[in-house]
Design goal:
Elements: E1 5-8, H1 14-23, H2 47-59, E2 64-70, E3 73-81, H3 92-98, E4 105-112, H4 121-135, E5 139-143, H5 161-166, E6 170-175, E7 179-186
Parallel strand pairs: 4-5
Antiparallel strand pairs: 1-2, 2-3, 3-4, 5-7, 6-7
Amino acid sequence: MTDYTVKPLAPDTWDAFARLLERHNGVFGGCWCTWFHTFHGEKTFTAEGNRALKQRLVEEGRAHAALVLDGDEAIAWCQYGSPDELPNIHHRKEYEATRDELPDYRITCIFVDKKYRRKGVTEAALQGAVDLIAQAGGGIVEGYPHDTDGKKISVLYNSTRALYERAGFTYLRPKGLRNCVMQRSVP
């Protein structure tokens, strides 16, 4: 693996983040990684609206991610934030019915540029988020990866259970058909 750097998503890294998303059509049909920030009634449903929303949230300090950079080029990110910042998770009703306490942080989305996949960048992004959470004071961190049973799945918006296990997360319970809840305490 090349020596990548990790920086937090912030106004000064916005342009690198935006270029990565523009190279990939705003990701997932123009989401701009806003789906987890908003509930249905607050959604814009356009790539332009999502881009503006994400930029506003970044400028307000309400959108967090670990950006993986190769030089000045953003090549991946791992989105994280508090449950208030990222309230909209997949299978939320099931999650709410089976949870004990809310975590301090959630990891909701990991994305890697097509040219950098299968090169350890996903792991660098996840570790980058854990490191940034530690720098912010740490706490209980949950992730909601796909529980693939080793099968290849074409769309993984939050990587796999195996990756989270390698990163020190513990399996808690299933969530939906192919996702699970995993947790780690970050000092």
